[in-house]
Specification:
There is one protein chain. The chain is an alpha+beta fold and 134 residues long. It contains five helices and six strands. A six-stranded antiparallel sheet has the order 1-2-3-4-6-5. The longest helix is centred in the last third of the chain and has 15 residues. 26% of the residues are buried.
Length: 134
């Protein structure tokens, strides 16, 4: 089970990441002022749309590379990712922190960061970590 401390530690370890609140004062993590992850509590419309399936506990919003990646994450049976109608057509997922382990969270946040980081910064990171497979 991941925590906000894990999110913060992983996100801020990525090059040139900053933490700055969203418009509603929730923490968000950005690279070059582009948010790749943010705290996203469920709102009234989300709760109404999800009904009894609405999860409890901390929720993280995370950018994904594209809608295909989103669908793949959402298709994972009993996976930690879900969505609400608010995010229809948007390349992002919601993550139940209590349902994701730290290595999976690190992969998700790193992929989100790579998708928004400037190309030279992403290449440098991949070169430095030896992670050419992404």
């Amino acid at each position: 089970m991941a925590t906000w401390d894990d999110v913060r530690r992983i996100a801020l370890a990525l090059p040139e990441t900053t933490e700055r609140p969203t418009y509603d004062s929730a923490p968000a993590w950005r690279v070059k002022d582009k948010a790749f992850a943010w705290e996203r509590p469920l709102r009234r419309g989300d709760l109404e749309a999800l009904g009894d399936a609405a999860p409890t506990g901390p929720i993280l919003g995370v950018r994904v590379p594209d809608l295909g990646a989103k669908e793949a994450l959402l298709a994972e049976a009993d996976g930690p990712c879900f969505t609400t109608p608010h995010f229809d057509g948007h390349a992002s997922v919601l993550v139940r922190l209590e349902a994701i382990d730290v290595p999976a969270l690190e992969e998700l946040l790193t992929d989100a960061w790579l998708g928004l980081a400037p190309k030279r910064l992403a290449k440098q990171f991949l070169d430095d970590t030896g992670d050419e497979a992404r």
